[in-house]
Write a structure and sequence with these properties.
five-stranded parallel beta sheet, alpha/beta, binds S-adenosylmethionine, single chain, Cobalt-precorrin-4 Transmethylase, domain 1, 2 domains, 10 helices, globular, Methyltransferase, Cobalt-precorrin-4 Transmethylase, Domain 2
Length: about 270
């Protein structure tokens, strides 16, 4: 490690025993971890992680650290949110340094807020460490700028897993904004979501990008239009995790790639 990097680490907060760090691991590529998350991995006694934290990120944990899975695993029984927070509280009370590591940013559709509230209510000292959220990372790696002057003035991050009535998404209201929509957890409901947006007046030819496993070696990108995207992702067997971007910003990708192709030795 260079002296400069060593100095950057030296300025980071200490991970005290009995504390919980609630950190984001970014979208997958270990290069997108923050220094704070990396320091947490280096010092934690136990890393309690969810399913979206990449194995290469977990490999950066202290060799003596315990790695404990706590999250949703497709089809298999998963611990309830209550079980997870109880576990974090009891580990902290056992005087361990507890790194709660989540994919992306802990507080963007990651239940980080719920866990922080429970830790605070139990009197456990904790820190919240932001991570690169997959919605933004996926756009950038797909050469789709999240915002561009003259194209969009806002960005909507929305969940496609619209649970109970309390959390129901007003798709018509989102469509009326005319601003780009970045959909998390939207693959399985894409047919219904696209139909709701078109019913609300969104152009069936609105450009759409699906970016699956963004930043990972198995990354896949599909560019299409709103009316056909659900059928195409099914036909091409696209799988979660995936980010779906809907709006004119998607068109910028073709222009950017076309211009970039003319630049000698361009790294796409
Ligand atoms: C429970 S949410 C967690 C989001 C996470 N906290 C974040 O900030 O990225 C899970 C969803 O995030 C998205 N996601 C997470 N990692 C991804 C990746 N590497 N590529 C594409 N989408 C991803 C998918 O929509 C996935 O269904």
């Amino acid at each position: 490690m260079s002296d400069r990097l060593r100095r950057a680490f030296a300025g980071l907060p200490r991970f005290e025993p009995g504390h919980v760090w609630l950190a984001g691991a970014g979208p997958g590529d270990p290069g997108l971890l923050t220094l704070h998350a990396l320091a947490g991995l280096a010092e934690a006694d136990i890393v309690v992680h969810d399913a979206l934290v990449d194995a290469r990120v977990l490999a950066l944990a202290h060799p003596g650290a315990t790695l404990e899975f706590a999250g949703k695993r497709g089809g298999k029984p998963s611990p309830s949110q209550g079980n997870i927070t109880d576990r974090l509280i009891s580990l902290a009370r056992a005087n361990l340094r507890v790194l709660r590591l989540k994919g992306g940013d802990p507080c963007v559709f990651g239940r980080g807020g719920e866990e922080a509230l429970a830790l605070a209510a139990a009197g456990i000292p904790f820190r919240m460490i932001p991570g690169v959220t997959s919605g933004l990372a996926a756009l950038t790696v797909a050469s789709i700028p999240a915002t561009l002057r003259g194209v969009s003035q806002a960005l909507i991050l929305v969940t496609g897993r619209c649970g109970d009535e309390e959390d129901a998404v007003d798709w018509a209201a989102l469509a009326r904004t005319g601003q780009p929509i970045v959909l998390y957890m939207g693959l399985s409901n894409l047919e219904e979501i696209a139909a709701s947006l078109m019913d609300a007046g969104l152009d069936p030819h609105e450009p759409v990008a699906v970016i699956a496993s963004a930043t990972l070696p198995e990354e896949r990108i599909l560019i299409s239009e709103l009316h056909s995207i659900a059928a195409e992702t099914r036909a091409l067997a696209f799988e979660a995790p995936a980010i779906i971007a809907i709006g004119s910003i998607v068109k910028v990708r073709a222009k950017l790639l076309d211009l970039a192709a003319r630049v000698p030795e361009m790294v796409a």
